[in-house]
Specification:
alpha/beta; 4-stranded parallel β-sheet
Length: 74
């Protein structure tokens, strides 16, 4: 389903997102405006999320998955 290597850490808070995520895929349980903005600054490649509350367009690829697919991502 997803190409590339997933970043092993799940982003739950804004402080969990740092420059180690640059050019990588990150997992976010609940994507909001502040996490999306910081991800754009860090230049994250893509975001996989359970819930998307950002409500805006982004240059980052955002993939929303269901709970079954989320559990498969490790």
């Amino acid at each position: 389903m997803l190409k590339g290597k997933l970043w092993s850490q799940i982003v739950e808070n804004l402080r969990d997102l740092n420059f180690e995520a640059r050019d990588k895929t990150v997992r976010v349980k609940k994507l909001n405006e502040s996490i999306l903005t910081k991800a754009e600054v860090i230049e994250v490649r893509e975001i996989i999320c359970l819930e998307d509350e950002s409500n805006r367009e982004s240059g980052i690829i955002i993939k929303k998955v269901d709970k079954d697919e989320w559990k498969k991502l490790r």
